[in-house]
Amino acid sequence: MEAADLIAGLDEQQRRAAETLLGPVCILAGAGTGKTRAITHRIAYGVATGVYAPNRVMALTFTKRAAGELRSRLRALGAGGVSTRTFHSAALSQLAYFWPDTMGGTMPRLVDGKAKLIAHAAETLRLRLDTATLRDLAAEIEWRKVSRLTYEEYEAALPTRSLPQNVSVDQAVAVHKAYEDLKDSRRQLDFEDVLLATAGMLELEPRVAQQVREQYRFFVVDEYQDVSPLQHDLLDLWLGDRNDLCVVGDASQTIYSFAGASADYLLGFGSRHPNADVLRLEQNYRSARPIVETANQLMRGRPGALHLHPVDTEPGPAPRVTDHVTDSAEARFVAESIAAEIRAGAAPESIAVLFRVNVQAPALERALDDLGVTTRLHGSARFFDLAEVKQAMMMLKGAAISIVDEPLFKTVSDVLRSLGWLQQAPEQRGAVRDRWESLNALMGLAEAAGPQTTLRQFVDELFARQASQHEPTMAAVTLATLHSAKGLEWESVYIVGLTEGLLPISYAQTFEAVDEERRLLYVGVTRARRRLSLSWARQGQSRATMERRPSRFLEELRIRTPDGVGSSIA
Fold this sequence. Notes:
Helix content: 40-55%
Largest sheet: 6 strands, parallel
Distance between the termini: 48 Å
Shape: globular
């Protein structure tokens, strides 16, 4: 692709970002503003113009899925040689490569999961902890390490943390120490150790630092508002005394502060780099005007908040708000609304229901299932881990060896038919329908492939998707927590449970914690393209439970919620 073609379709703000290739660059990119498009075209433009050698560019993000998407887009733009990784995978690769020379021997094994090791550490202290407590303590260990706190500093910070009720401050610190001792005695590393050890290696071994810096000259960091102190320090070590760094983020989407993320690095980038170009992307291409206005109202006056400008200026339907007697009634209403959308022609995969905590999912799942609506719980079993998908991929891989000239569509169709796939979806619900949906998603990928795509290329792309967890779209309504919905979008979004105690969550007691809950709602609102529905229930599963109050965020948005009647933003 010619360099001029790479920037021809960008808007003015995106083009400026794409053409600013050198020196420190900070791109403040609001939700739906084409952030990924801007940075991938920026990298590809740098490669096409000869400013970047592709093997000297490192694009960093925080999840395998996001890294996989960046990799796929860059490959399509002719910049497939760029290294696209998560912080952890980049650090692990370097640590494994340099360990034999710097430390001697093989690198220690990685801990599969912290819970079992923490349980053993607690037993040495004569503590018996349940699964939920072990999970909470694992999160505390991760927070302490990515925040680069000593045990003393962690203990001093504990008044601002939410420890499990059955664990005292002294016990929590003791478990941390026992966990580290036990892990070291078993010669193991956890994920945080990988970052810490890589940082230590670069700090203490000038030869290693020089080698890494010679390999990578240009750095791009996506979702920079999610960077932790440890990741920030490691990035500084990768850069050394150079400044060819481009960071991209949105302070309004900082929703992982509890895990150590800090938007301060994004908002303070201009101060740390006085000669930095600070650019803004504020043209929202995703959402209808009423949704954009809702998002702007929610974040008005917040530090670093961008003011989004809708490209779609059509009036569109106003966000709808409903209140209900119980959670069950709310779930039934949402299910009936979704079923009506599907009957009117909406694709199930274009609809999502978002909630604050996982325990809200079963009632929604049951209500939708009762109406024959297929659902997919985002974050549950991964597509490429499903037995029927694995079987299909292996059969396609075998077919690629023996079949040469047959059209891709026919070969894939024949293989999937041998596994029970038919063009028409089965009428029954349950496992049979779920299996068909999985195989049909593979068929959809084959249909979307270019006419010149060979079976070998298609199979290679499938296995690349599997490695990067870049999953195809399933024909099902998505159920997801607000946290897991970040980075996704749908035509129609339902956000349920907008009550005090759920959103904001009951343990969000400080101003900072409540503001994080606000940002979480902002993320949910900005997932919607055309339709947004907000709802809350006055009571839990029965009328005997304590009556709830609507979320303060609804009041701030000046939304009126007369009993049982949908209303919109005033």
